[in-house]
Amino acid sequence: MPSGLHARSHTYYKRLILGYLLFCLAALFCFSNRIYAETEPVVGEPDSHEVYLKLKKGERVWKDKVYVAPQQPTVYLTFDDGPSKLTGQVLDILQQEEVKATFFVLGKQVEAYPDLVKRAVAEGHAIGNHTYNHVYGELYKGFSSFWEQIERTEDILAETVDIRPSLIRAPGGTFGNFDAFYFYYLDQAGYEVHDWHIDSGDSKRVGVPASEIIQTVRKGPFQDELIVLMHDGTGHEQTVKALPEIIRLFKQKGYVFAVLQPSVQPKHFAVGKVQQPRPSSEAGYEKQLAEAKVHELAMSALEQSRHAQQAADKANHSESSPMIQETAGGVSTSTVVGTKGSLLLTNHTRTAAAPLEVLLARKSLKLDTEHYRFKDGHYQVPLRQLMESLGGDIQWRGEQRTAVAHYGLHTLEYDFVQQELRVRDHGTTTTIHLPQMELQEGTVYVPLRGTLDKLRIGIATYGPEDGVMKVQVGMNLRL
């Protein structure tokens, strides 16, 4: 055979064999993929590491949810930064116009004007969480700071109006403030974050005139479902003046008014470049995600308990069950089975008549009715017994009349001279004036829920069982 023909023949056979091998490999790949596809579960929890990588790239990850679209054009009037002295005037106008709205409140303002929040709830308005102090430098330096303010305000609202809102609005909106991690943690915790469609412009500078506010709202954009941003905080007298005309504008356009609820699809701004750099380690991500899931489980248990209690009340199975308070945009804590941070019953005059058992990770603290108190709807327990059961320690400084409790990196100083509680956490000190604490016959009594929260432990569920009130602590307990 000529050498050229031999070479071409050799090349041909090499290509033929290579093609055959490639065909076999492709068939094997397809077959293995088919087996994998058939054995892979259809649904399941996303891989935590993969989610972390997506979030780090700026991708947003959401839980599957079902929202309900309104049957007619609906507008949600929302007011931020209150309550303040102006909130009563806003409520008067809403009452005259027979309109319901949503108030995103600041925790420190709720402490200053609790009666106005109570009035808003009593008149059928929804309450949302707008953090505690609205200070951007604290809220957006890292999610843990934002989370602490959300939980602090949630606790204040639970104590003031007996609800824990699932609605959140970020001060300044989410654009440029939230990253993908912020959205993800709050979503996993069971919250709904709401931005807005129409900004009334009442806060773009001091003293924006009512005529300009009305004109800004008049420009829209208008669609079937609208969230309108306004403010009822100090300095917004012109917003109050503009409100009647804004309400008339939407009535003329055929809108109905409603309050935001978890069933309303939220408006989210795009993720912009954040103003402050934030460290993001996978270990920190896992820790924060665990806390978020504890909160979501607790809220779910509370909601299920509320529905169960409603069914029981309807069927008249128990005349002694606590009343259930209907809320919009939040969950009532007035249920037999509670959650992290609740332990608050509607019937504040009820006396404790059952032993109390706090279920920890590997042990429990049992107290009979003589060794704990039930005051103003809260369980108060001996500080020493609680700390020692948790694996912490406590010292009594007699000259300063101060009890010092240590748990991990947390220190709680109960000062009975200054009547204050100093919380030291990772080098930061927070002072709480006139805290809930009592010194009786050498025993320091502290609120069970509040103390666990300050130690970053929290409460998952609680409820009566076999004649004992059992409290299950959160998953993030450290012993």
Characterization of the model:
Helices cover 37% and strands 22% of the residues. It has 479 residues and is α/β, with parallel strands linked by helices. It folds into 2 domains: 215 residues, TIM Barrel; 126 residues, Copper Amine Oxidase, Chain A, domain 1 (2-Layer Sandwich). Strands 1, 2, 3, 7, 8 and 9 form a 6-stranded parallel beta sheet that branches. The protein has a 5-stranded mixed beta sheet with strand order 11-23-24-12-13, with helices on both faces. It has a 5-stranded antiparallel beta sheet with strand order 16-17-18-19-20, with helices on one face. The N terminus is likely disordered. It comes from Paenibacillus baimaensis.
